[in-house]
Write a structure and sequence with these properties.
Elements lengths: L12 H4 L2 H36 L9 H37 L1
Helix pairs in contact: 2-3
Length: about 100
């Protein structure tokens, strides 16, 4: 990545865009990386939780009962996560409105 230092590099702001554009691009990139990290953590948590709940005797392949248990477990986990997330966002918005009044 070129930062515009040294000879032979273009250091004018027009080459990279305005500082506001750069800041916006960096902000979007950081937000995307945070979202990716959060999604990875959620999948990992679901995997650990459902594995420990559903797989009593690990074998070389999953039985039909194991597969069904994992599907139900992960579905319930995601539904719960969705409800909790929506409630959290609602509360944050409510607090934000209360602070701005």
């Amino acid at each position: 990545m070129a930062f515009g230092f040294g000879k032979g590099t273009e250091s004018s702001s027009s080459a990279l865009g305005s500082s506001a554009d750069i800041r916006d691009r960096l902000k979007k990139q950081v937000q995307q990386e945070i979202q990716t990290s959060q999604a990875t953590a959620l999948i990992s948590k679901i995997s650990r939780s459902c594995y420990s709940s559903c797989i009593v005797d690990p074998q070389s392949s999953l039985s039909a009962a194991d597969q069904e248990c994992i599907q139900n477990c992960s579905s319930k986990f995601l539904q719960t996560f969705s409800v909790v997330s929506k409630e959290y966002v609602t509360r944050l918005q409510s607090e934000k409105r209360n602070l701005s009044q």
